[in-house]
Amino acid sequence: MRTAFLLPLALSAQLLALAPAQAQAAKYELDPDHISIGFLVDHIGYAKVLGMFRSARGSYRFDEATATLTEVRIEVETASVFSNQRKRDEHLKGPDFLNSGEFPRMVFTASSAKRTSDRQFEIQGQLELLGKSQPLTLQATWNKSAESPMGGPLRKPYVMGVSARGSFKRSAYGMAYGVGNGWVGDEVPLIIEFEAVRQ
Question: Fold for domain 24-198?
């Protein structure tokens, strides 16, 4: 009688112990060799300058079964800015723009995301730049998740690929150089492409 009473309790305890592990989202880390963070800035109305940041890292948690995205953090090294023109790049690193010496990182964070369709997400977060934090929304596409064919013979990493787009006004962060006279655009579209490895 006592055994019959205790057995269901033991089974319930085991199920409760397993539940958090099963529900816990996996951690993903951005692959530094497969991340591209680009931007476009208007130049006196003639054309847009295409630039990028060559050094970034980040992580997030993702539950593939429920498509739940949480704990997003992307850190960009501002001194890694590159626009294919040395003098302009030095100007971009200076106090008129990114002020990399005083603010070496630009950081995007988001606690969660809204799934808008099967593989589309709206990520409402905060972008910290030049010591100020402002809202930034990224529209992200979950391109693919699969075991990578590029791994070694003993372990092939599980990789998730993402494309994201967004934009912000640099003047909201106090970066007003060239805005008043229209020489340098205020709106900065972002182009983010990355692969992330499940840990």
Answer: Lipocalin (2.40.128)
